[in-house]
Amino acid sequence: MNQKDVVITLDGPAGSGKSSVAKKLAEHLGLLHADSGAMYRTFTLALMQRLGPGETPEDFGNQVKAAAISPESLHVEVKIDADRQSNLISGLDQMDLIRSPEVTARIKYIADRLEFREAVNRLLSKMKGVVADGRDMGSVVFPDAPFKFYLEASVEMRAERRLKELQAKGWNEDIEALRESIRKRDEEDQNRQFGALRRTDDMILIDTTHINLDGVLRRILNSLQIQF
Ligand code: C5P
C-alpha cells in the first residue's frame, strides 16, 4: 500500500482529544489532517450568517428547517495543506469563529440533517493520504480505511480540556455548564438518525482519560508500525 494514499480514521466523542491527536499524527506521518467537526461547524456558521442565530438554538433549528437552504448555496469550501485546514465561507477563512459556544450550541440542527451530512461527506470523499477525525469517519465515510481508532475519555476530563481550549481563545465558560454541554452532545451524537457516533469492531479503542497527547500518539504509532 502506498502510504501517501492511506486513510486513518479517528472517531470519538467531543473532547476526547481526537483533533489534537489527528493533527500530530498527520504531521508525524506526512499526511494531511481532515477535521470533519470543523466542516459541520463551518456550515452551521454559514447558516447563522445567512439566517441570523435565532433567539435560541431551537429557534435557529426551526429557521433552518423552514428555509430549506441547500448546502451548495452557502459557498463553503475546505482547503487542506500540510499546516492547517482552512474553512472558507464565500472565500473568507472563518477559523476563529467556528469554535464559539454559540456555534457549538447550534451544530446539532445541521449535523442531524442528511443534506448537510452528504455535503460534508462529499468534501471528504475525494481525500486521500489523510488522518480524518470525527464521529462517523470509520463507520460511514471511510468504511474501508485500513486503520481505525476510537478515542474516549471521562466526561470530567473532557470538560476540563474544553475549558482550557476556550480559555486559550479568550472565551470563558462555567465548568458545570461544559460538563452538561458535553453530556448533551454525547446524547445527540450517539442518537442521530444518520452518521451517529458508534464504535465498530474494527476500531482500536484508546481511553485518553489518563494519557497525554504524546502517550496517545505513541499508542497509535505502535499499532501502525506493525503494518506500515
Ligand atoms: O469535533 P467537534 O466537536 O468540532 O464537532 C462538532 C460537532 O459536529 C459534533 O458535536 C457533532 O454534532 C458534529 N459532527 C458530526 N459528525 C462528524 C464530526 C462532527 O456529526 N463526523
Describe this structure in words.
There is one protein chain. With 228 residues, this protein is of the alpha/beta class. It folds into two domains: 1-31 and 130-228, Rossmann fold (3-Layer(aba) Sandwich); 32-128, P-loop containing nucleotide triphosphate hydrolases (Rossmann fold, 3-Layer(aba) Sandwich), CATH 3.40.50.300. 48% of the residues lie in helices and 16% in strands. The chain is built from ten helices and eight strands. It has helices at residues 18-29, 36-51, 57-67, 101-106, 108-111, 114-125, 137-141, 155-168, 175-191, 213-225; strands spanning 7-11, 32-35, 76-80, 85-89, 92-93, 130-134, 147-152, 204-207. The strands form two sheets. It has a five-stranded parallel sheet with strand order 2-6-1-7-8. It has a three-stranded antiparallel sheet with strand order 3-4-5, with helices on one face. A hairpin with a 4-residue loop joins strand 3 (76-80) and strand 4. Helix 1 (18-29) crosses helix 10 (213-225), helix 2 crosses helix 6 (114-125) and helix 8 (155-168) crosses helix 9. The longest helix is centred in the C-terminal third of the chain and has 17 residues, at 175-191. It is globular. The chain binds cytidine-5'-monophosphate (C5P). Residues 14, 36-37, 40-41, 107-108, 111, 134-136, 185, 189, 195 line the site of cytidine-5'-monophosphate.
